[in-house]
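On clarity, I found the account of how folds are encoded harder to follow than it need be. For illustration, here is how one protein appears when written out as sequence plus structure tokens:

:::
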Amino acid sequence: MKHIYKVILILSIMMNYAQAQDINFSGYDKTIGRVNPSAIVSNYAYINAQYRYTGIKADNQLHTYAVSGAYPIRLRRRRLFGTLGFYVLNDQNIGNGKLQKTETEFTFASGYTLSKYSYIATGLNLGYHFQSIDINQYTTGSQYYHGEGFINPRMDVNFDQNDQASYMNLSFGANYTIVDKQYEVKKQFGFSVIHFNQPNMNWSGYNYQFNPIYRFHGLYRVIDKKDWNLSPTYLLSYQNKEMIYTFGTKAKYNLKNFDFTRRKKRAWLEMDLNYRVNREVFLRAGVQFDDLFFGIGHGQPLDQSRNIVSGVTEVHFGYRKFIRKLYYKKKRKKKKKTYTNTIKKTTSYNAEKFDHDKKLPESDVKTESNQVSSVDVEETLNEVTNTEEHVVEEKIPFRKDIQFKIGTAALSQKEVQELKASIDELIDVIVRIEIIGHTDNTGSEPFNYQLGLKRANSVRNQLIDSGIDGSLIEVISKGESSPKFDNNTFEGRIRNRRAELIIYIR
């Protein structure tokens, strides 16, 4: 089964970019929506939940809970599409002192299709942040001073300090993206300005009135095989005269080769490895079954002498659903419809010779009249004479028989390739698809009905993997009841093990 889940970087099910972020209290700040608001643009609706544990030196811990989601929306112009997203987060430490932060953010992003598989997108994020700090004779390694923000983490403070702060923030981003036929990201390059009006809460303690974070990020798929792919990534973050570099790679492997995933439409193993230069190494692994995702990751600081964080561990759950595909249709010349009017006329008469001057008996006249009347009416109705026929030119639906081996519903590699080639040519003009599963007459009738249904669903799953909207597909099983060939012959039984694919096009 062809791999499908192209992990759309813009819509990673875990929402964990696991890359460098400039942070306030912890290293949790790593979702793709916070890297670039425009990156939430996608054809999938999703909901994600994540938990992050951060170990802090001096017997302290930080627990973070976050929920995020997005939903694609239609805009008035056909090539324009949009996405609405939200993000809610709460974290606080357990131990001496108190650091707590709550965030609520809303994002709107819109995209414009440039071609069948590429688009540009822009996004705007508005958020509300509330945070409180209660330090009582305790050194966190990153102390906060009212009006000055966080100072050098190597300085110790041994007096009481309490404060609360809240503010609204605004972020903007744009990106250029190329996706594959499953609408997973193959290439993406973006730029963003995060938190235009963020107060001064940086590591160095510099007091900037205008303190945004500038980010450049990208992904480029360099290996794209049927069963696996590999995509290097980068993220550059600049704030307070400091540049942070992060380089990584994302890899995916198709688990459909294993028996325990046979009943799944999609089964992938995903791995991310990221190196935050001179700061942190982060490794994440996850599995995706159909539209459900589970992942776990761990980050380890590299310079323990200057880092108050001893390590982080993350757990992610996610669910997504395909909503719509990119709309891109070239202008086509309208074909003129041709109409043909056919008028059939028949004349019925008796060609026998007779004397016009000879008067027939009255009884004979009635008989002839009855016979002629009967013939004229009945034959005229049967032959549909004196009618007008309208013949309208239209395209013929695409039809194909897909063969299976005895007792199985698995598609062969040859059938997958042929099916993919056919779908690629018709994907923009498909209106409706019917798939009818058939079997030979070996086996019971209930068994053959179920086998025919499995064969039809196998083709359906392959079509969905190729980018077809599942709502356009109708699946039927006729089992052994409608053989196309003679089931009494060996060759006929082989040819009856099939799924009939009918594609209706406009």
User: Anything to note?
Assistant: The chain is about 15% helix and 45% strand.
